[in-house]
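Good morning C.,

I know you're traveling, so I'll keep this short. The sequence:
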Amino acid sequence: MDKFTTLTGIAAPMPLVNIDTDMIIPKQFLKTIKRSGLGVHLFDEMRFTQDGKEIPGFVLNQPAYRKAEIIIAGENFGCGSSREHAPWALHDFGIRSVISTSFADIFYSNCFKNGILPIVLPQAAIDVLMADAKKGANARITVDLETQTVTSSDGQTFAFDVDPFKKHCLLNGLDDIGLTMQKIDSIDTFEMAANQSRPWV
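The tokens, ready to paste straight into the viewer:
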């Protein structure tokens, strides 16, 4: 999993509330178990018409935001079903952080396991960052996980809370498999001892 330390990038303003996982990645794209290749379908029904043409008004289709790495969103982002494909699609598109007043619990946890930093800030801070993001590609927002701060393009800084364990995992690029592999020596020792004591197993 990719490490997350500090990110300075373009932020796409998405003021909609209750952006659910089916909006993030529609159900017809859930057939794959690969984490790659889903970015082209991110927000598919919002980005494209039924015949596959881009909808110019959608924020990620606008030239200023095609390379956005941050989303400033309305409340309750990631609600709906618990599909892990949602953070897969975001990450594959290039989104590394989503900032909102609130997230659905399962989506929030899945983000950390897939290299994305979800940040909860009060509405007043979101209002400032949303306005900043609307300035376009020249307004870059900085997210610093180590200091737990978000800084707008004009230097306004907002502190955020994050669980210490989740922070450790993201800073070090550790998903569940990575955490397990840190214990590989202990696992090997246990398996050797088990094989010796129970060779019939």
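Safe travels,
E.
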